[in-house]
């Protein structure tokens, strides 16, 4: 099939900015629209979801995702609501959950369904909490208490605070790090705005990673939270 590479730099601004751009919303689709836009508009790191014939892959869902959503988004910068509804109808059928076509869902629920049950790809993240057993997952949802000093935080600050408060470490450098911000849902949003971090430093989040001592500059042997 024809392949359109992800948009970058000036091309991304030209194609994606303006009226009737992005993914058209309909019937509480915002959680899915935002997730799909983030995963595919300007990065190719998850393009295996579009082309690779995974052993458990549902090729019909894969073709809808590729040909009706990702390709139009990258080519013209616009995806019609009926294309996303077509995907939602397939997810409803495969996921045995009737509310996928009309209700607002948690983005993590959508990602787990399409990545694990429908496309059958391997988990993207390996996490360890407090020295306990490792756990695999597809995305990381930020959980943290309200911080009075964080009025308009950036993503770097939120990830570090969340990992620290949950005593979490990354077991290995992830091939793709999908992070769900604490700004979803209709009722409550912890922050009015979050500044995107264009780069994410995960040095201090890695398990058993050699790091520099902040006092003498040698390789550190102790870590203080």
UniProtKB/TrEMBL annotation:
Residues 22-202 form the Peptidase C19 ubiquitin carboxyl-terminal hydrolase domain. It is found in: Cytoplasm, Cytoskeleton, Spindle. Pfam families: UCH. GO terms for biological process: protein deubiquitination. One of its GO terms (cellular component) is microtubule. SUPFAM superfamilies: Cysteine proteinases (SSF54001). It comes from the Eukaryota. One of its GO terms (molecular function) is cysteine-type deubiquitinase activity. This is CYLD hydrolase. It comes from Alectura lathami (Australian brush turkey).
């Amino acid at each position: 099939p024809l392949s359109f590479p992800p948009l970058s730099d000036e091309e991304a601004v030209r194609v994606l900015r303006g009226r009737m751009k992005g993914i058209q919303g309909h019937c509480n689709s915002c959680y899915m629209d935002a997730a799909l836009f983030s995963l595919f508009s300007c990065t190719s790191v998850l393009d295996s979801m579009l082309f690779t014939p995974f052993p458990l892959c549902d090729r019909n869902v894969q073709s809808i995702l590729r040909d009706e959503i990702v390709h139009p988004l990258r080519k013209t910068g616009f995806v019609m609501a009926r294309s996303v509804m077509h995907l939602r109808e397939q997810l409803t059928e495969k996921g045995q959950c009737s509310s996928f076509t009309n209700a607002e869902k948690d983005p993590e629920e959508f990602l787990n369904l399409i990545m694990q049950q429908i496309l059958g790809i391997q988990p993207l993240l390996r996490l360890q909490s407090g020295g306990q057993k490792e756990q695999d997952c597809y995305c990381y949802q930020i959980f943290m208490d309200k911080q009075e000093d964080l009025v308009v935080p950036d993503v770097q600050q939120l990830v570090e605070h969340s990992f620290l408060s949950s005593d979490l470490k990354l077991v290995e450098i992830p091939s793709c790090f999908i992070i769900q911000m604490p700004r979803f849902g209709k009722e409550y949003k912890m922050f009015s705005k979050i500044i995107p971090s264009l780069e994410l430093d995960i040095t201090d989040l890695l398990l058993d990673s050699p790091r520099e001592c902040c006092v003498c500059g040698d390789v550190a042997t102790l870590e203080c939270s």
